[in-house]
Amino acid sequence: MFIRLVLGISVVLLVVATPASAHVVAAGADLQLAQTIAGSEVTVVIRGTPEVPGPLYVDLIAHQPVHDLTIDLAVDGSVGTVRFQRDRPGTYPAVLHVRDGGPHELRLETSAEISVLPFRVQAPRPATWELVVYGGFGTTGLLLAAAIAAGARSRRPTAVALGGVGVVALIIAATVAVVSPHLGDRQRDPGRPNAQAFLTVTPDRPAVGEEFTVRFDLVDGATGQPADDLAVHHAALTHLVVTSQDGGFFRHVHPLRTDRGRLEARLTADRAGRYLAHAEFERTDAGGQLVSGRFDVSGPVPPEAAHPAAWTFPAGRPVTVQVDTGSTGLQSWLGMPGHLITRDRDGTFLGHAHEQSAMTSTSDGTVAVHGPELRFTVSFPRPGRYFGWVQYAEDFRIVTVPHLIEVTP
Ligand SMILES: [Cu+2]
């Protein structure tokens, strides 16, 4: 009977426990999301909120090029405004207000663009299991003290009854204490399929120098509904890499979520020809995905793209390359000191490596990036010519250095 009671309480707790989410904003745990807004790389930092209802601190970290731009923010009906100033990169703070814990949406709006970012506020109150554990141990202590007192007065039946109830409380508290580390874990859903991605480019054949929109619509392959459950993956909902086939054009941007399952970025091409769009994202509980599409840009045929530095590697073997940035003031971008994106000539292969060794977390929670060298370990499955782009942040500017990579048999 006691065991049934204990199991019953455990089941109830499993049902009421809040599922873990990749978008959780809790006290002391900030959420970082990269967004490309009006051509600027912006890191949206939603600070862990100390209490609900209470203030929600949102920082927009703008990277160069920064233009004069007004961004309206809204959450839970509270609004704020941030005004970027031309050539003034850095942190632009805003204070909003949240009424309660649970799922929320942060809306960012400019005169031309809208993005809606889902996140979850974890209310900083004790979890149910904590109340049961502490309550159970507290009750045990009181009851056992009472039992001892009754025993001392030779009231044996009372002592036995109090002691028995005390033992039950102890069992419940101990059981919950043992299982509680697992209560917050969401059951992994192995059946969730990859999203199907549909690329739309508007206009469908952009011209050189003309702004166009790249849109990926993500659809759940099983239900046909928008796949709108993206986890935060390397500090963004989606990483979009758009390159020209000849490697001369490269943009790594972070599309806006303009609708359920819809991600959009605006770009301007500088050369005609075939282009490739690769999007990297991760559905919650479904693992990472890389999807791609192609489109053409019209205009005069450009001269062959120049890739100044060249590396030569053997195929099929990991190699570590060292890049000297010449800077000791590197900043973390997308949670890493450096990124190396690689692509083969026809675009069927896209690789993304990170430099992590140059970064350390300091005791106050900030990230220190050492320089000036960045190291990347990469391997290429097949021989051939590849393009590589090293990216890092310095003085709130994203630096991109193209490389040509010859992979030998
Ligand atoms: Cu990215």
Automatic annotation (TrEMBL):
Top-rank lineage group of the source organism: Bacteria
Membrane spanning stretches: 131-152, 159-179
Keyword Transmembrane helix found: yes
UniProt keyword terms in alphabetical order: Membrane, Signal, Transmembrane, Transmembrane helix
Signal sequence annotation: 1-22
Protein name (record): Secreted protein
Species name: Saccharothrix tamanrassetensis
